[in-house]
Amino acid sequence: MLDRLAPTDRDLVVFPEAFARDFGEPGSDLSAYAEDLAGPFATEVERVAAARGSTVVAGMFERSTDPERPYNTLVVRGGTQASYRKVHLYDSFGHRESDRLLAGPIAPVVVDVCGWRVGLMTCYDLRFPELTRRLVDAGAELVVVPAAWVAGPRKAHHWRTLVTARAIENTVYVAAVGQPAPRYTGHSLVVDPLGEIVVETGPGDAAEPVVLTAEVDRTTLAAARRTNPSLANRRL
Q1: Is 86 among the residues known to form the active site?
Q2: What pTM did the predictor assign?
Q3: What is the CATH number of the domain that holds 105?
Q4: What is the residue range of the signal peptide feature (predicted)?
Q5: Active-site choice (35, 44, 62, 123)
Q6: Of 29, 27, 60, the residue nearest 43 (C-alpha)
């Protein structure tokens, strides 16, 4: 799937949360699907990234110190190597992600991709603005948010609103990549630092994945930070 969907001639390719293996039925055991960061999935991500000449981000379940609760991890391979373990577990809207997954350390992960500083978050992290601000304080100019945003009433509205808010309040680009309908919300989108939607898909269909392409540019970033100098003006 990685090899089939990863486009060519792109500096950064972002796949959704839990791309290696879906969450399965609510409450199901995920430990059997956990791998090490040097395991088959991360190795395949690295191979595809090398073949495309890109940096690739994709979600997996990673073995942790608790054999029954893996980490929900983003692996970054290609032009740079890193990993991010999801900090905020989805104990909300009737779900209990912490029953089967372990939260990662509270530390911002920012990587360099072709001269851009890229911050990493996962899904439910989007609802916690302090994490995005810590990424920006660590230098992030683009924040990527792989997600499996569960579908339901108001959920698409929350998703699009929060992605846009994180971009505006931090004057950064946000690239939010969601698993598709019917189980999830879809609506992958890229928002610029003034809150304009650069590109967006609809709910999508798991049977027909969609590839979105967007370009970020420093002129837009600099103009946004001149127009809305909220980072410079903050007092807390």
Answers
A1: yes
A2: 0.97
A3: 3.60.110.10
A4: none
A5: 123
A6: 60
Which of the following is catalytic: 17, 44, 62, 97? 17
Q: Within its chain, how far is the Cα of 70 from the centroid?
A: 18
Q: Which domain range does residue 66 map to? A: 2-228
**Catalytic entry in 35, 44, 86, 97:** 86
234, part of any domain: no
The answer as to whether 51 is a domain residue is yes
What is the tally of structural domains in the chain?
A: 1
CB–CB of 84/74 below 8 Å?
Answer: yes
Q: Mind listing the pLDDT tens digit of every residue in the chain (236 residues)?
A: 788 889 989 999 999 999 999 999 888 999 999 999 999 999 999 999 999 999 999 999 999 999 999 999 999 999 999 999 999 999 999 999 999 999 999 999 999 999 999 999 999 999 999 999 999 999 999 999 999 999 999 999 999 999 999 999 999 999 999 999 999 999 999 999 999 999 999 999 888 889 999 999 999 999 999 999 999 999 98
Q: What b/e string do you get for 150-184 counting C-beta neighbours within 10 Å, with b at 16 or more?
A: bbeeeebebbbebbbbbbbbbbbbbbbbbbbbeeb
User: Is 155 annotated as catalytic?
Assistant: no
Residue 105 domain-assigned (yes or no): yes
